[in-house]
Specification:
Blueprint lengths: L4 H10 L7 H20 L12 H26 L15 H19 L8 H31 L5 H14 L13 H22 L3 H20 L4 H26 L10
Helix pairs in contact: 2-3, 2-5, 3-5, 4-7, 4-8, 4-9, 5-6, 5-8, 6-7, 6-9, 7-8, 7-9
């Protein structure tokens, strides 16, 4: 997934087929949402039941994520944009950002310890693992890859690009409100916006897209499993962990706004 120096030079010499713009980034977001949403909605399965059985999980998550991810990958190869998989420069990673990544991975490990593994049906476990891989690849390629590349175009500040990406990632989860979550889905939108900025940190800290994909996939796998197969003590502990992430996410947003308003990753013309 990484772009080598020779590959980057080849892409630069050929030039992009279309220019990365905010309008195109939003169009990609909407196109992916429509594709995945139609495939999910036509199943007639409520969002709260997506991971109740292996059949539900494959129909509502694995298939839409796989098709959406392949479509995004095909567009990525066609458009020939640079710096989708790798940042052109290494950005500073603050102590708060490193703490956020450490907390993210610690909560995943904590959740996995608290799963009643013997009660998880093997076919459902396979579906959840496939869904985790799919969501990590597709949604990170879309938001921390293509959409971030569009937002960085034209000399926009990194603060603007990062914050917009995080907020839009939250709004991306709005359709879940009409697919069975109801008004509780508004909480998911807020939490997703906070998670989105922390996933941006995984890319920023390494300069690469794939660590964000791995972090996203592992998080969702642990979330899907904890939703139905958690030890009794895990629910309260997970709620406390969510509170920590709310604080960390808000602090990262504020930190980016304060320190990166003058940081430009891709200079304008």
């Amino acid at each position: 997934m990484e772009t080598t120096a020779s590959e980057g030079a080849s892409v630069a010499s050929r030039g992009p087929r279309v220019r990365p713009t905010i309008r195109l980034g939003i169009a990609l977001w909407l196109a992916y949402s429509v594709l995945a949403g139609v495939l999910q909605f036509r199943t007639g399965i409520s969002y709260t039941d997506w991971f109740r059985t292996a059949g539900n999980a494959f129909a509502t998550a694995v298939v839409p994520l796989t098709l959406g991810g392949l479509a995004l990958l095909a567009f990525t190869n066609w458009c020939r944009w640079d710096h989708v998989w790798r940042d052109p420069v290494r950005l500073r990673c603050t102590g708060l950002m490193r703490l956020s990544m450490l907390a993210w991975m610690a909560v995943i490990a904590f959740r996995l310890v608290g799963i009643r593994w013997s009660t998880v049906p093997p076919d459902l476990l396979l579906a959840i693992l496939a869904a985790g891989v799919g969501v990590g690849f597709a949604e990170e390629l879309l938001f921390r890859g293509l959409f971030l590349r569009c937002l960085r175009q034209g000399g926009r500040s990194e603060a603007t690009a990062a914050i917009t990406t995080g907020v839009c990632f939250g709004l991306f989860h709005l359709p879940n409100m009409v697919m069975g979550m109801g008004w509780v889905g508004a909480i998911q939108v807020v939490l997703a916006a906070l998670s989105g900025i922390l996933l941006y940190v995984f890319r920023r800290a390494t300069g690469l897209l794939w660590p964000a994909m791995v972090a996203h996939g592992l998080w969702d796998i642990s979330t899907f499993l904890a939703g139905g197969y958690a030890q009794p003590w895990l629910s309260a502990a997970s709620l406390a962990a969510q509170g920590v992430f709310v604080v960390l996410g808000l602090l990262v947003y504020v930190g980016l706004y304060r320190t990166d308003r003058g940081t430009v990753v891709i200079p304008g013309p």
